[in-house]
Amino acid sequence: MKKFISLVIISFFAVQFSQTSAQETKVTIEDFIAEHSGFEVNVDGEIKPINNREINKKIRFFIEEKYLNVEFTRNVIWDSYETFLSPYDIHHMHTFIVQVKVEGIDRLKYLEISYNPKTLKVTSDFEWNKEESEFIKSEVDKEVEAINS
Prior knowledge:
- By secondary structure, the chain is α+β, with helices and mostly antiparallel strands.
- The chain has helices at residues 2-21, 29-37, 53-66, 140-148, and strands at 70-85, 90-102, 109-116, 121-123, 126-129, 134-137.
């Protein structure tokens, strides 16, 4: 029985590693078309915000896992959809703004979250800054810009 449990645990980690190390499937033009066709327009010609329970659950779970100082999330609001297309790369991403309650802070704060409809993954470039009591975009981009300039 111990061997079986050990084999299951090793298999689980091997599958996890192979999934993270494998190259992700590239986004296609058809993915853009499918995503765009899912948008609905109201009578004023504005795009209706996406309100997908499964995406909202993923976002809430992501925040619980990454931001341990967040007590709860209040609202998950769709903000935008961005596409990028070049001869070398192609991707698309939805942006959500999430209202959160941070431990020790009286006011609710806002956190920007990205959702990749191709990989179904949720990410964020924002980190909590205690000194400013705000979520601040990570400094990694600025460091790379400084090195390349």
